[in-house]
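Limitations
The structure tokens in this dataset are predictions for the assembled complex, not deposited experimental models. Users should treat interface geometry with appropriate caution, especially where small molecules or nucleic acid strands are included. An illustrative entry is reproduced here so readers can see what is and is not provided.
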Amino acid sequence: MKLPLKVNLVEVGPRDGFQAVSGFIPTTEKEKIVRGLHNSGLSRLEITSVVSKRAVPQLSDARSIIQVGNQLDTCLTQVLVPNVKYAERAIDFGAKKLVFVLSASPSHNYRNVRLSIKDSLTELREVLSLHPSNASLRVNIATALDCPFEGMTPSSNVTNLIEKILTMSSDIELAICDTTGRCTPDKVAQLFSHLISVFDDQDWVFHAHDTFGTGVANCLAAWHEGIDTFDCSVAGLGGCPFAPGSSGNVATEDLVWLFEAMSVDTGVQMERLLEVANQVERIPTALTGGRVRHALNNQQNQTRLGVS
Amino acid sequence: MKLPLKVNLVEVGPRDGFQAVSGFIPTTEKEKIVRGLHNSGLSRLEITSVVSKRAVPQLSDARSIIQVGNQLDTCLTQVLVPNVKYAERAIDFGAKKLVFVLSASPSHNYRNVRLSIKDSLTELREVLSLHPSNASLRVNIATALDCPFEGMTPSSNVTNLIEKILTMSSDIELAICDTTGRCTPDKVAQLFSHLISVFDDQDWVFHAHDTFGTGVANCLAAWHEGIDTFDCSVAGLGGCPFAPGSSGNVATEDLVWLFEAMSVDTGVQMERLLEVANQVERIPTALTGGRVRHALNNQQNQTRLGVS
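Predicted assembly:
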């Protein structure tokens, strides 16, 4: 198999990361971060979620932030929605790509969106029916590998679910999510190898969490199976402020560093990204992760101090 | 190739980690950590270094610590030495395994041990000549992949050096060290694949640093080439207190978690290891790394609080 020599990094910090920060990040600060990310070469941003403002007050400025993204050249504003009601609103706000989320395990789906998987599929069908031509759709398969309530997810759960999704439309990007971060590279490789053999010509994304330190290794395992699109979060922002040690997505800097060092093009300028990552680290209550940021800051400090 | 279903983890925290802590850790505390590590199932400990007390005052209690290790059942006390003078002393102190270090790049060798590679090889020959039957020898090839002064190390440097070493004795374990942590999994795989094809029946170790977040992925790449022995440091202890962001070896907990989750036996009991890792994290000025410790502490806190 030909390994991808170019990868697409989908920056999910403004959604998956910001929603995990306990306080509300001022819209102007979010705007600065979004502009910085885009300026570093990340043209696809999961920029916010259109959800209940009561449930996720951190993202209550979704409309403004989507507008900010849409003003940026070549920016694909990707917005997560839990159901058809909010999908309609996100389209109204100008979202260019919708992300609809459902889980491969029933207990997680219910706890996450308060619906059975069957009802989530009905919602998805309605989202598809209202779908305008200027916004594309992605479906996140949460707990595709492991569920916090049910343990390892059988791959048949995933294939059955995907079959149902693809009968509605073949034009859907699918993201395989290691929601718990408990998955290991061997299992990532097995699942993607299986999915690619079953579903021909399908667009895939891998969404890794670095909770158990396998984020980079898991992305690499997916890349070895030919996957070329990865979610990641600037400064590894994420986790839950009430759960010390919980972790966000694999850090964008770590993936950029890894792939570029392997001569795989990410289109991202590390110096610019590093500036944004350092800004994100200063957000009060932000839980960050990743290693590359520290290593590069250290190099810069050494250069500044004349240490070689 | 048959992948190893059992791996040997060499705990280097008491040497590579403790020497990076700026203050002196009281011998009694070191002893407690060493006992804890051994009790968790880590029977091979790079327990200290016998070196100039002026250069590395942190390890000036080498004799006592080696004695502590030797009192523990099945503990292989491994001790790093820079030259024949200290090798003699380490044997006198009771070291069961000596680690002699030299670099694949001339500039690093000179800065590290103040010798040319040729002179280091002469030292090694002398170490071998005084070598008693009850202590075995390992050679660490520092900068085997990348050098802070010379960049990527040509693999011919490494093979030439190894040829010279193995003409002295074929009974030497060789550790390939990613000293800078800048190496990526593809290069780790390439080098090991090459070395294994050139040097038949040789015992290898991989010594990874997690500075750029590739520690786990690099170990996995080596494992895929058949490597079954890995250096690691409890709590990822290491780095340099004067260089924020510098990083230690890949965290022992991260490797234990990874391998056990892949049904590869490490012989380590995670709960016991976690206790020691938490103790190590509390050492003043300790720079720690790794993710698994945080994730497992968090799980324990949640269980304690009744959160599911």
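Some entries come with short summary sentences. For this one: The longest strand of chain A covers residues 97-103.
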